[in-house]
Amino acid sequence: MRGATWVAGAAVVALTATACGGGGGGDTGAVLSASWGDPQNPLEPANTNEVQGGKVLDMIFRGLKRYDPKTGEAKDMLAEKIETTDSQTYTITVKDGWTFSNGEKVTARSFVDAWNYGASLKNNQRNAYFFGYIEGYDKTHPASGQQSADTLSGLKVTGERTFTVKLGQKFSSFPDTLGYAAFAPLPRSFFDDHAAWVDKPVGNGPYAIDSYRKGSQMSLRTWDGYPGDDKAVNGGVDLRVYTDNNTAYTDLMAGNLDLVDDVPAAQLKNVKSDLGDRYLNTPAGIIQTLAFPYYDSAWNKPNSDKLRQGLSRAIDRDQITKTIFHRTRTPATDWTSPVLGADGGYKEGLCGDACTYDAAAAKKLIEQGGGLPGGQVKITYNADTGSHKQWVDAVCNSINNALGNDRACVANPVGTFADFRNQITGRKMPGPFRAGWQMDYPLIQNFLQPLYYTDASSNDGKWSNKQFDSLVDQANAETDTAKAVGLFQQAEGVVRDNMAAIPLWYQNGSAGYSERLSDVELNPFSVPVYNEIKVS
């Protein structure tokens, strides 16, 4: 789950502003403050698969591709060119003139070494699966037993700025995935003194980490030597840790914080009058779902698909999105996001009746599915943000009303996002759990394969279906984009027929900011485009 997390910070650090103004364009030395949450894992690019850590990686790294902050299109960044004749072997040329913020040159080996590290089983990287397309992954990261190779056979450095990538099968969209943070380059310092690097990560993006105190704040400052054309127009960003986004919003209104990038549900009815044009509500590649623990036999019996479909039909999405989220959510009718567009794979209504509220049908389906395990369903969520409690309570109320039983569904809060994630990865979920997804890259493949493919990196419920896997494999091998999308949608139909996860709603990105800031925008991933924010 790449959903947002909020962790608390007590210290209020004074904003810094220098005298070097940008003349009408803001003060290029001024630092802005923004709400944030401690990441679950160390900020290694291949080890971060949640939003808060991802925000930092997007500030301190640049990869071969970068997703346009307005359109989401994958555009060349450090890639001078990516060439292929068969959609299976790619020759990549890295642009000249790029360095890391410690002065090391970015070369082809910077990428190859980073990807080999990420793919190695012994390094235990959360995003190792993203290297699974590359030939030799079964040797560096076997499904069982010890690895028999330390490097991917499909990666070869052919020059200071060139390397080749051979995939295990054709994957025509592979270049478009390379803007994802897991594919970022790494400096030699990462390998030479790994502990020191983890303590203070060094990247090649427009910002460099100045300091980090867990539970309090991470300070990033503009890197003056950054060679890209997307230089920061401010002096840096202080990411302040909050356990409750209501507190962050209060700090924003009191003038103690410049930017909140997840307006709490409790404030949505007031936010427009509070902030006016300084409130953003923009579509994003985010879907909220309920996942299930398929490793628990209670939720993985014959006819359990009927049980899951019944629960889905017991949820009144229209009512919940209107009363709680005030038009910042839209009831989901498929498992992707409208930001993909029809050509990109979004198919309105693909879920059909299974996503339509019908109390009588819900009751009947749940009975056909063997009834609620233990007579009750517990929905687990992290409680360190204001909005999750409200919508989980609302979902439970809807289920209880549909079933005529006020104890049929109860909320099961977990104190912090980190604890929540640890329980998920430890396979300790007692029932359905919040499993929102923020796209890594704007492809239908990314809404399906990482979440539902057997043993995929974010398949937290451990669902497995051979038909789904086969259709995804076929879609990846298809070089005709329209045909590939059609195959992915067939795979999504398998997800629907089994109700592998319950889609709830598509989420907009929401943010509010202080009068000190201008040019504040959210990208299609709902993350602020920090480098473009001007500070007065």
What features would you describe in this structure?
The chain is α+β, with helices and mostly antiparallel strands. Helices cover 28% and strands 19% of the residues. It has 17 helices and 20 strands. It has helices at residues 51-60, 108-119, 137-140, 174-177, 188-192, 194-199, 245-253, 271-275, 304-313, 317-323, 341-344, 359-368, 386-403, 417-425, 444-452, 466-477, 481-498, and strands spanning 31-36, 65-67, 74-76, 79-84, 89-94, 155-159, 162-166, 207-213, 217-222, 236-241, 259-260, 279-291, 329-331, 377-382, 409-414, 433-434, 437-438, 502-513, 517-518, 534-535. Strands 11, 12, 13, 16, 17 and 18 form a six-stranded antiparallel β-sheet that branches. It has a four-stranded mixed β-sheet with strand order 1-10-9-8, covered by helices on one side. Strands 4-5-7-6 form a four-stranded antiparallel β-sheet, with helices on one face. The longest helix has 18 residues, at 386-403. The chain is globular and about 65 Å long.
Q: How much beta, percentage-wise?
A: 15-25%
Structural class: alpha+beta
The share of residues in helices is: 25-40%
Number of strands: 20
Biggest sheet architecture = 6 strands, antiparallel
Overall pLDDT: 91
Number of helices: 17
**Low-confidence spans: pLDDT under 50, at least 5 residues?**
1-23
Rg (C-alpha, Å): 23 Å
Give the terminus-to-terminus CA distance. Answer: 36 Å
- Molecular shape: globular
